[in-house]
Structure formats: C-alpha cells, structure tokens
Amino acid sequence: xxxxxxxxxxxxxxxxxxxxxxxxxxxxxxxxxxxxxxxxxxxxxxxxxxxxxxxxxxxxxxxxxxxxxxxxxxxxxxxxxxxxxxxxxxxxxxxxxxxxxxxxxxxxxxxxxxxxxxxxxxxxxxxxxxxxxxxxxxxxxxxxxxxxxxxxxxxxxxxxxxxxxxxxxxxxxxxxxxxxxxxxxxxxxxxxxxxxxxxxxxxxxxxxxxxxxxxxxxxxxxxxxxxxxxxxxxxxxxxxxxxxxxxxxxxxxxxxxxxxxxxxxxxxxxxxxxxxxxxxxxxxxxxxxxxxxxxxxxxxxxxxxxxxxxxxxxxxxxxxxxxxxxxxxxxxxxxxxxxxxxxxxxxxxxxxxxxxxxxxxxxxxxxxxxxxxxxxxxxxxxxxxxxxxxxxxxxxxxxxxxxxxxxxxxxxxxxxxxxxxxxxxxxxxxxxxxxxxxxxxxxxxxxxxxxxxxxxxxxxxxxxxxxxxxxxxxxxxxxxxxxxxxxxxxxxxxxxxxxxxxxxxxxxxxxxxxxxxxxxxxxxxxxxxxxxxxxxxxxxxxxxxxxxxxxxxxxxxxxxxxxxxxxxxxxxxxxxxxxxxxxxxxxxxxxxxxxxxxxxxxxxxxxxxxxxxxxxxxxxxxxxxxxxxxxxxxxxxxxxxxxxxxxxxxxxxxxxxxxxxxxxxxxxxxxxxxxxxxxxxxxxxxxxxxxxxxxxxxxxxxxxxxxxxxxxxxxxxxxxxxxxxxxxxxxxxxxxxxxxxxxxxxxxxxxxxxxxxxxxxx
Length: 762
Description:
Helices cover 42% and strands 12% of the residues. By secondary structure, the protein is α/β, with parallel strands linked by helices. Strands 1-4-5-6-7-8-9 form a 7-stranded parallel beta sheet. A 5-stranded parallel beta sheet has the order 14-15-16-17-18. A two-stranded antiparallel sheet has the order 2-3.
C-alpha cells in the first residue's frame, strides 16, 4: 500500500441475534415455560454473542459492534438502561422477569405497547414516558458486553439508541396536554454523558449512537435539539469518539446539522432512495473533518450487491469525507443468517442472494477494493457481474402473460359495483348478524401436533391423504369450539398454514420459500419471508378447499382468509429490479382470482389482511402519496370483483394508523379490524375523526400478551369504542390472530369476549 492509498475499515451496525438454528428463541421460550433457569438462559446468550464475535472477526470485519444483542428488543433495552420502567412492572421477582413483564405483560400488568420499527417488519416496545418520569442509569448491559468482547481481545464499538430517537419513539400513556416526550431531553442527556464516560473508562474508543428518527421529516425545533444534544455529548471531557448512525432513508434537513456538529463520525445509508445522501453530502461541502461509514450494501434485502456500482459510490465518497469505511446500510438483524443453509434452492438462484454472512463478505471485499489495488478483487467483481447478468436474463424473472394481464387492468377493475350503503343492506340480508357481531382475526393456536404433521409431510413420513385428514380434524374442532363459545362469524383456524405470507408464497409462481431464512419480527417471533424473484401468478386455488370445508360444517358464516398484496411484498424480500407497485399489481391479480373462487364456493365473508400498509409508508412525506396510490389500488384490485352481498374485511395491527386513515377509507373494505387494546382503543377516536364510513372492529384483547382479559376489561374497551363510534357499525374481535397462543387462554379469552359483548348489547 502506498502512502496515497486511502485507509478504510469494514464494519456492521448489528448482526442477527438468534443464532443459525434460532437457539436464542428456543432458550428464551424454555425459560418462560420454566424448563431452564436464568443462569442457563444467560449462558446461551453469552455463547451466541461470542460465536457472532468470532464470526465477524474471522470474516475480516475490522471494527465489530457490541450491545446489539437483545433478549427481546433494543428499544426495550434502552428503557431499562435509562430506568424508564412503568410502576406496574417494578414488582417483578427479578430483573430478568421484570424485563419480560414489560415485553409480554403479566396477569396483573399489561405490557408496553408494541409497534413497527420505522418501515420494517421488526417491532419495538414503545417507551412510556410522562412529565413526571425520572430516569436512573443502569449501564450494566453495554458495559458487560463490551468487557465480554475485550476478554476475547476485541475492542468493540458499543451500539446505543440515541437520545433523540428514543424520545421521539416514546408515548405518554396519560396523554398529558402540552407534553411531549422530547421535553425530557434535559433529563436523559446527562445519563448519556455518564454512560459515555463509563464506556471510555472501560476502554471503548468509539461508540455508535443510532438516530434513525432523523431520516424522517423533523421540524426546526427538533433539529435544534439535535444540534444542542450532540454539542453537549461531544463536550464531555471523558468519552469515546461518537459515530452518529442513520439508516433506512436520506437525512435531508438533518444532514447539514450533523455535518456541522462536533461528533467525529457519521454513518449514512447510500442504498435505494437513501442514495440521495451522496448529493446531500456534496451540497454541504462534505465532512472532511469526520469519519464516514458508508452503508453501500443493502442491509434490508437479500439480493447480492452490485459490487462495481458500490465501489464507484465509495470512490466518489472518498472526496467528501476525512475517511470512508464500508458497511451495510443498517443492522443485519433484518436479513436471514446464511444462504449456504438453503440447500433446497437452485444453485443459480442462490448465487443471486446475499444473507448476513454473505453481506460480510461483500463489505470486506469492498473495503479491499478501496485499500488495495482493484486487481486484488477483480475475480470477485467478475463473478458478481456474472451472477447479476444471470438473474436479469432468467425466464422466471419476466413472464409475458403476467405482464400482459397487468397492462390490461382498467380503472373499473378497482371499484365495487355499488357504494357501501347499498352493499351493507345486501350483506345484512345474507348474513343476519346481530349488533356488535363477534369474530376472530383468522388463525387459531398452532399446536405442536400441527407443526409435527407439517414436518412429517415434508419428510415423507405422512402422506397427503393422512395430512389432509389431520388438518380437517383440526378444522372440525375449531368450528365446534367457536360455535360452543358463541361467536357470530367463524374462521377455519388456518391449521394448514405455516405463516400468513409464506403459505401463499409457496403456492404462487415467481415466489420462493427458504428452509432456514428466519428473521426476527418481535421477541421470539421469527418468520421466514418468501423471496419474490420474478413475475407472480396463481396456478391454482390456494385456500378454497379449506374454507369450503369449514363452511360445510356450520350454518354460521365462515370467513375466507387471504393476505393482501402490500403485506405480501412487505413481509417478503421483494425484487428490486422493477417498481414495487408493479409487483403489487401482479400479486393483486393472483389474489383477485382466489377471491372470485372463494365467492363461487359460497364463502360469504372474505378477509384480505393488510397489516403492513402503514409500516411500508415511506419515511419521508414526499414519497407517501405515490405509495398510497399503488397500495390502495392493489388492495381494491384484489377485492373489487365480488358481488354486493359478499362482505370484504381487512385487518391491520401494531402500527400508527393516523398517517393512513384516508387510505383506510379509500380501500373501501366493508369491515376493517384494527389493533387497539394496547393503545386503549385510541384508534377508534381516530376513525371517528376521519369520518370512517364503513364498519370497524377495534381489537379488545391484546393477544401478544400471555394473559386472559377479564369480562370487565373487555367491557371497558367496548364502552370506549361505542362512545366514539356508531355501535351499529362496530364489530368485536381480538387484536390479531391467535396462532401464538395456547388453547386454554384462547377459550377463556373468547368466552369473556362473547360475554362482554352480550352485556354491551343488553
């Protein structure tokens, strides 16, 4: 290396927590069930952290993070770090049990509210902060994990949620007039100063403060608070150097504020729309006094990076910063662990993909491209180009018949034949439902027996006939259970489904499934997002057999259950070679065919779930109108072809709905069910203020908490709902599907739900 060759480091912001075989999930759930003690759980966590540390070091990562591990959620970890613990959770038997009580609740103490982490499918626990909140620093976790790595000879860069983002994500459960959590900034900044001091004294050279909230539109007073906060932190006499990290989008107006701040480093996203950060850096004259960590490898999607294009971006950035390091665009917790575990994938297609381990290789290769002669990575660049060309030329990527059908869609295909008022009368004549009709969202508990049956079918130990009968037996039991409890609109329980997106992905062309592509959604809930690799079509019906069988067992109406096009995209790894709206229309047409077949089979109620509509909303306001146009159009394309007397439902959960209320109206579903129990039914008032004209089912039971809501609790929720929204257009249902719950609590909770509804009707 010559003296003129730039120095560069390879780094990441975080790594998958679960282990290659979801060891963390299994250990945490075993602890919850009393099968292992706290010491065993802590030991498993340490083993996983040390394994990740060794893997990152052996891959050639120069600067390794710490404190990115979490038992449940990193925002919850920050609440514990700052002592922001609700009074109702302080009586737990141990610190670990208190932590899990905040996440999951107890019989006597509801959990913290849960919602989506920006526009991802990861969920965080919302901090509860009020004007009387007092903070107390508990630095034990970041200090212990830093020391743990130091014992292995690795000086890590501790990762923390920054103070601005933490407060902007928080809520005041009391809704105190004139108060906002950001008003508490002066109380927590001294704790961050103290934490930085302790980390420096422990040996930390750099600390990473994550401020992803700054890629959203922020008013001038928030930007002023950013400037003041980081001036204060940088003025601390004893501290590590500060790397302020942003991701998921461009910084916009926050970039000049950060460029002029006294922090030593900035980490920026340069993928997708965030590539505009490059122009932003140029417009402020660069950050020649700072370290730049350049996120040029997409940390949220699974496609192999275009190494030549990324290297070009890095070369341009060399002239805009004091030093340029190479990283993924965000933490790698959003992608699966290792593509080499996917032995069932076509090797050619596997070559198009890059999971967390492969992204480490891309990052290290790009760092070599900056610090060594380009010839040192020429073989990597050649192989990468060949794989990109293979993907572009593959016949599964572009299917003419699919594209022709999308091109033929007209505006008439996006509208129901009649307005809601006329449809409602037709549906009342067909369904004969009582006031405040009761239903569930769709799934019933996924028992161990069901999972074993699916595994036995895959392994060839169970033939299709025996498997079908096992599933039918479960459907019979679920229908009988609902009739016994007294629900009004029934579901078949979805025993045959592994996941609400994966199940459909496995039956649609252009979409592939993985065997080990697990990604954390929340806590111990992991999903395997399908891979949308090409044009999408439906070869044959996917759900009709099960719905029709369930309807044959009862005189009550049964709902057909589908996952909507926006959610199919959001909870899959979506192709990046065409606009997402084009892909959504392909999925919508496939679902339109399924809806038509369900209707023809006599299914009177069809639910097309869109829980991801809000989470996929662009972080920047400027991009939202275009997104909502195609998102709403794709839902309507899926559902608008039915008769007036077929009732269309949709469902959304665990998101802030205020920004999409008009889109919810525009979707024109006959009934929408929404998560609302954790937020004390706040969405009902939002719907009323928005003039929502159709029917709504605000969730009255938080199914993500392992507790049975009392009749009185549900009745209270119903009183709140009826006070804000017309009772004749209200439904009663849980927050979400019941697949993660056990049958004893489901029976008890639904029994209480029906009894509370009976009292409300009276």
